[in-house]
Structure formats: C-alpha cells, structure tokens
Amino acid sequence: MIDPDVLARATEDVRRATGDPAIAELFERSMAENLRSVAERLPDGTTFVLTGDIPAMWLRDSAAQLRPYLVLCADDPALQDVLIGVLHRQLEYVAIDPYANAFNKEANGAGHTTDETEMSPWVWERKYEIDSLCYPIELAYRLWRITGRADVIDDRFRTAVGAILDLWTVELDHEERSQYRFQRHDEAATDTLVREGRGRLTRPTGMSWSAFRPSDDATEHGFNVPGNMFASVVLGYLEAIATEVLGDAGLADRAKELKAGIDDGIAAYGIVDHPVHGRVYAYEVDGLGASLLMDDANMPSLLSLPMTGYAPADDPTYLATRQLLLSPENPYFYSGSHAAGIGSPHTPPDQVWPIALAVQGLTSTSADERQRLLELLRDTTGGTGQMHESFHVEDPTVFTREWFSWANAMFCELALAHAGRRL
C-alpha cells in the first residue's frame, strides 16, 4: 500500500541517520507490512482498519496507525487514497454513534453485546473516550494540509463534526445534561463506570467529560486533561477547515468558543503545584478538588503534548511534567535491567509500552535520546521482530500482544523523525 520507491528513499534516510542496518530493516519491513496487514479497501471507497488482533476498527488506533504513512504520503497518490478512505470510514462511524470507540466492518452485531448502554449492530464497543473524536478531525486536517486534495473534506465531515461538537458541549456538564451510561458486569472494574453507569461525581470545569481513557480504562475523575488538550488543538484545526474550506463562519465560531472554554478549564483546573517539580499538568481532575498525577502509555498522554500540538517540547510546564512522568513519582513508570519507561494500569505491573518509549523519543529534543530509544525498541521485541503492547522491564520475552500494529507504527514514526522527517 506504499510505493516501493517512496519507502526505499525513507529507509535509506533511516539507515543514514541511525547508522544501524537492523533498525533500518525493521523500519522497512514494518512500513511495508503494517498497513497492508490491517487495511481493507471497501467497495464504497472507504478503508476499514483493524486494530491488529481484534476484528474491529478503533477510531483512535486507526488514525494513530497512519501517522508514519502521513509523513510519506505527499509523494504517493495511491497511498493518499487509502488514507482518505480511512478518514471517510471514521466519519461515517462517528455519524452512527459519536459515543462509540470501536466499530464493526458491517452491521453484524459483533462485539460487546452484553454491555448496558445504547448499542448498535455497527458498534463493537461503546466506551466513550474524548480522544476518539479528536483523531478523525486531526486526520482530516493533516490530510488536507499535506495533500491539498478537494476530496478530503466532504459532506461526511460536516455531519460528523456537528455530532462531535454537540457531544462535547453536552459533556461540559455530564451530571445535568448527559444521557450516556455504561456498565459491564463480567470484566475488571476498570471496564465499567460506577454509580449505575454514570461515572464518578464531577462538577463543571470548562473541560469536556470523558468516561474512559485512551487505554479503554475508566477515568477516575472524569476530566481527562491530555484528552481535553488534544480537543483544544483539533478545535483549532476545525476552525481553520470551517473558514478556509467550508466557508462556514458559524461552525468556525462554534469551534473557537468551545476551544476557549476548554483552554480556560485546563488553566484553572488542569495545572497543580507539586512540592518537587513545581507547576505540572494533572492527568485527571473532577472539578471538586481531586486531581491525579500520573501518565498512561496510550496517546494522547501528558508525555505526548508536543506531538498533539498543545505545548512545545521546551515549554517549562511541560518539562516539569515530563520530569515527573519519567520518574518513580508516576505510579506507572517502571525501571529494570532491560528498560525504563511508562506502562499502564491496563497491563501488568513492571511492563513498559513501546508506544510510550516511542513518544518519549518523539518529544525529546535530544538526538542521542532518540537513537538510544530506537536501539532499545530494536532489542526488546522478545525475538519476534514485532513491537508489542507491553513487555517486562526485566525480561522482554514476557509481553502482552504478540503483534500490536499501533506500536509498530510508532516505532516507524520515531525512526522517520530521527531521520528528519516529521509530521
């Protein structure tokens, strides 16, 4: 699905930048196989993308899996067709149910059918995550900017973003305005919401509420700060598209107003004073005084803020937060004889995620750190030659998910960035 000449040039760039044939070979193979293994062009011209080893399409994962291909697609019109097809499939899904995070290829009723929520036969899972709605807007903006093609933004986009804005506005006050409920009775506590599916009590902050994190684990405090930061960024993208492509001043104003309120909420509630690190970003807050200092491996994370576009890599508050996150003060930072990095409550203790290691490199201003992390990722596949969801810091042959497409994509994006090719 990628032009061989385009890939060959990129691989040579990676080889020169890293001085490591093994990293270049892993990059080339992953780029050649990763998208081809998960993407299926459908008769209607859209593209369905598996998350990997689960037969469903996650809005978040299907966009994140495309990031290294976006870097290279300017010179590959056929690849552009595939990527635009992914966007259009996402937009159709959002119109079906903006609260859902994962969808079936067709209306076959597969997935988590016993969950207590308003399911559709199109929906694999209906865990509402604010970031799931950010990714299609970001993908649309990047494809529009990179390709300049008129077929990127169509009527599907207008319908989907209308639904997104409606939902985010309702969830500014989850307690009083939202009808969303979610309960799952046969899994871990992190797979369901308390209070008969409403989630823990919150008070309005200016930010938009989220039931689940990017890890698909339930939020503890309702307002996921990195998710709202990502929403702020993509609302800026939406304002630009509404103005420059759609000529819709009303839509632009609506996006601008919602962004301003979320930004005010982040400033008022999302920054806390830490006794060691000073002013840092919280991971979650509830508007009632509680805050959570941690980070999760999944994007958007606090560590990924320069990637999502909310803060530059040299921003003082980001740097203070980064120092905290990459230390034992983050309860999901693990260190051992083979690796040190950020894991997740979604996976066992002492297991770090290749995604988080790649994000660490992509947000670093140090070429030496990027090189070190690429070599670490090269050496911790457990002999499989594939990135995993997570691996044990003392033994990389102990891992979750033998093959994780999103993690492979993040390795490739880091390799491209180290070679001077960035989104």
From TrEMBL:
InterPro entries: 6-hairpin_glycosidase_sf, 6hp_glycosidase-like_sf, GH125. SMART domains: DUF1237 (SM01149). One of its GO terms (biological process) is carbohydrate metabolic process. Coiled coil: none annotated. PANTHER family: MEIOTICALLY UP-REGULATED GENE 157 PROTEIN. This is Glycoside hydrolase family 125 protein.
